[in-house]
């Protein structure tokens, strides 16, 4: 007979009489930052026991099956840049698509957008703990972004919704209607010389730049594979993309021509962002469990200048802080890392349990808060961390 406990997305069967010894320290319910009641009837295992089993048994999805040969540049994983501040189980977080995990966005320290269900996008205030609906869609949502008072959301059937932060739907269209390749994998709002535009990245291999007044494409580019994510450079001249290929592409914003090819990853890419303070640097996240940092000054065919590796899962979501001081990246489950961008060697590892729906820094210049969306069926929540400050006496 076996006793089975399953966090969403994992496949763990833990025998009752396993040879691994249990931790003698008993975690109390109020001491666990997620509220997991270790070694109780509800959770009959110690934290260390379950961590050892999940580290062995968790299987992250990959499209490629070749052995990974990546070298991590991290030298110190014991840093503390952000400290735990609060858990918000009332702000249930989730995701709809197993590979699309950019489902959390702080628009201020007091307002965080998150998916509460596959069809509902909500705005949560961590201070007052109030919540309000921003969008409800008949079909599942998989991506969203916000700028000023606007929110754009992408759907599983190729939809694009534009609403305001108060929950009023302004416009909606189907941007991709090709059979079986419709998904709006990524959508972004950006300021283009004082005018707000929309970028939509879809499974039909296309990137579209749209005018929100008419929801019509201004530019449309086609890439060699489905486009899982895109990021526009700070100078608005380039678009970095991650696609269903081992290599990624940076294209010219106006012509759509490929300017750079990024070679180094060993699976499909899902996370991408430019450094906010250095127009030459960008980061990509991949199903090969790695993040790579690139410097476009190195030529048209790029190799990574830094490689950062995860433990158990694909890197599906990454974010730079507004001041560029930190890069955070989340594995599909259990681990989030926050790196010092001065040399990418100093890292804080946040060890949690459950599938991760997204991560986000608060957008202020000093980035005082950091949030993690936990999508576990039993312990779904929004986790809040505060920037650690050394106080001199």
UniProtKB/TrEMBL annotation:
UniProt key word Cell cycle: no
Protein known as: Uncharacterized protein
WD repeats: 262-304
Organism classification: Eukaryota, Sar, Alveolata, Ciliophora, Postciliodesmatophora
InterPro entries: WD40/YVTN_repeat-like_dom_sf (IPR015943), WD40_repeat_CS (IPR019775), WD40_repeat_dom_sf (IPR036322), WD40_rpt (IPR001680)
Keyword list, A-Z: Repeat, WD repeat
Pfam families referenced in this protein's UniProt entry, alphabetically: WD40 (PF00400)
Domain of life: Eukaryota
Keyword Repeat: yes
């Amino acid at each position: 007979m076996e006793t089975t406990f399953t966090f969403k997305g994992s496949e763990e069967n833990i025998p009752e009489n396993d040879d691994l010894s249990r931790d003698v320290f008993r975690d109390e319910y109020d001491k666990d930052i997620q509220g997991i009641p270790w070694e109780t009837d509800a959770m009959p295992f110690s934290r260390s026991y379950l961590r050892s089993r999940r580290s062995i048994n968790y299987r992250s999805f990959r499209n490629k099956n070749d052995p990974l040969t990546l070298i991590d540049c991290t030298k110190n994983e014991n840093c503390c840049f952000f400290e735990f501040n609060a858990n918000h189980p009332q702000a249930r977080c989730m995701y709809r698509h197993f590979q699309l995990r950019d489902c959390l966005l702080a628009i201020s320290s007091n307002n965080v957008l998150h998916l509460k269900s596959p069809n509902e996008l909500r705005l949560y205030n961590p201070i007052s703990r109030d919540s309000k609906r921003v969008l409800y869609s008949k079909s599942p949502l998989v991506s969203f972004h916000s700028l000023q008072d606007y929110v754009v959301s992408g759907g599983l059937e190729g939809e694009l919704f534009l609403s305001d932060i108060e929950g009023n739907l302004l416009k909606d269209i189907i941007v991709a209607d090709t059979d079986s390749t419709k998904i709006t994998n990524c959508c972004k709002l950006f300021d283009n010389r004082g005018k707000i535009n929309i970028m939509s990245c879809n499974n039909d291999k296309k990137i579209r730049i749209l005018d929100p007044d008419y929801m019509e494409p201004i530019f449309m580019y086609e890439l060699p594979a489905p486009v899982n994510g895109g990021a526009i450079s700070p100078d608005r001249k380039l678009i970095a993309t991650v696609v269903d290929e081992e290599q990624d592409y940076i294209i010219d914003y106006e012509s759509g021509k490929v300017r750079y090819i990024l070679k180094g990853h060993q699976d499909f890419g899902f996370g991408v962002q430019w450094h906010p303070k250095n127009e030459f640097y960008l980061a990509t996240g991949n199903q090969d469990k790695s993040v790579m940092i690139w410097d476009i000054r190195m030529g048209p065919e790029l190799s990574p200048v830094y490689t950062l590796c995860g433990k158990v899962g694909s890197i599906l979501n990454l974010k730079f802080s507004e001041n560029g001081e930190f890069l955070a990246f989340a594995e599909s489950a259990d681990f989030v890392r926050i790196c010092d961008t001065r040399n990418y060697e100093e890292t804080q590892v946040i060890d949690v349990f459950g599938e991760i729906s997204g991560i986000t820094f608060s957008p202020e210049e000093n980035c005082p808060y950091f949030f993690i969306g936990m999508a576990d069926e039993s312990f779904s929540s929004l986790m809040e961390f505060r920037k650690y400050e050394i106080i001199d006496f």
